[in-house]
Design goal:
single chain; 372 residues; alpha/beta; six-stranded mixed beta sheet
């Protein structure tokens, strides 16, 4: 039996049209900007034991500590009437258009919604029902590393012959879960990424992967159901899910564990593929902070010119980050057919993972989401 390869054949992105720039907080929450050092998330991002070191994370972070917004310039925010499924539907249709196929030609759809529109059942079945699809569709979750976990799973299913063509959708609508009067909102945006994984010749596509757990980050963040306080007893109060990052040790935990997680995953995936770090033509990582791509390049000994970061344009879009950075690298011609590409993603309270790809010749791309 001839072995089957699995690779990325198309990429599409979808972002809300509303752009929230730093001026929003300077205009609407000047007291928050003036007292920025009191913001919990800023303490998390800059947290250490009080001393700066010469490790890769501290070196690359240092230039951003004097910047109020820590390198964030813009973030896309959904409208009040928009939902995560709206973004996911547009991204899925954009993916199919880019590949030149009808959605009915998909064999399965995997969906990660951070967070879903309903607590359960979640978005996958609702998304495919909108499009009149009857294919298997299921939800999965691994926080900001969902793309790598999704790729590993989808590639295995394609190689096994269970499916020929799987759409992998990841979305984030964090503006619904963070109060704009919190510094946490400075760093979070909304958006959706879509990847198409299908059969390809062996020796191309997704060659290997390595995923580990990040249990050491438990307690970094939590999502709580809260009810806004009002004075009138007869007012109907609607509960909302709110993200909290009150653990000021979180920054130190992430900083101290990031390099080990990075090197374990990347070198593990490269070893499986029979490559070394010197064989890597391009490195694509998720970028939860502005300096993360530079940190990864320094820690791995990769030329920083072989990385990309869209943090300034989108801010932290969680599970969409890896897809957004991969799209940027591919759409600007920085990744070419035959290149050895390493993907790395890290998620708090979930997993970290890496994948080694040999880039295909005809990877289709949707339109650039912010062109023009």
């Amino acid at each position: 039996m001839t072995s089957i390869g699995a690779g990325i054949s198309a990429i599409a992105l979808e972002f809300p049209t509303h752009v929230r720039r730093n001026e929003f907080w300077e205009r609407n929450h000047p007291e928050l900007v003036a007292n920025k050092d009191d913001g919990t998330y800023l303490r998390v991002v800059a947290s250490s034991d009080g001393t700066e070191t010469d490790n890769a994370f501290d070196i690359e972070r240092r230039p951003y500590l004097s910047d109020t917004f820590r390198g964030a310039r813009e973030r896309r925010v959904i409208a009040a009437e928009e939902t995560a499924i709206d973004l996911e539907q547009r991204a899925l249709l954009g993916l199919c258009r880019a590949r030149g196929i009808d959605p009915g030609e998909l064999d399965a759809v995997m969906v990660n919604s951070w967070l879903p529109d309903t607590l359960g059942p979640q978005n996958a079945a609702h998304l495919t029902a909108r499009l009149g699809l009857r294919v298997p569709a299921w939800n999965f979750e691994s926080a900001c590393n969902s793309v790598l976990v999704g790729l590993q799973t989808a590639a295995a299913l394609v190689r096994a012959g269970d499916y020929e063509r799987i759409a992998l959708i990841t979305s984030i609508t964090s503006s619904r879960n963070v109060d704009p009067s919190s510094t946490l909102s400075w760093f979070l945006g909304d958006g959706c990424g879509a990847l198409l994984i299908e059969r390809c010749p062996t020796g191309r596509g997704i060659i290997s992967s390595k995923v580990i757990g990040t249990q050491e980050t438990c307690g970094v963040a939590e999502f709580l159901m809260e009810v806004d306080e009002v004075e009138a007893d007869d007012t109907i109060r609607t509960p909302r899910i709110r993200m909290r990052m009150e653990n000021t040790a979180a920054g130190r935990i992430m900083r101290d564990s990031a390099e080990q997680q990075l090197t374990t995953c990347v070198r593990g995936a490269l070893d499986k593929a029979g490559y070394t770090i010197d064989d890597v033509d391009f490195l694509v990582v998720n970028t939860p902070v502005a300096w993360f791509a530079a940190f990864c390049a320094r820690a791995l000994g990769v030329d920083p010119a072989k990385t990309v970061s869209t943090f300034g344009t989108y801010a932290n879009v969680g599970p969409v980050l890896t897809t957004a950075n991969l799209f940027e690298a591919a759409s600007t011609g920085r990744i070419k057919a035959g290149d050895v590409v390493v993907l790395f993603g890290i998620g708090s309270v979930s997993t970290a993972g890496a994948a080694v790809l040999v880039w295909g010749e005809d990877v289709a791309l949707g339109p650039h989401p912010v062109s023009g």
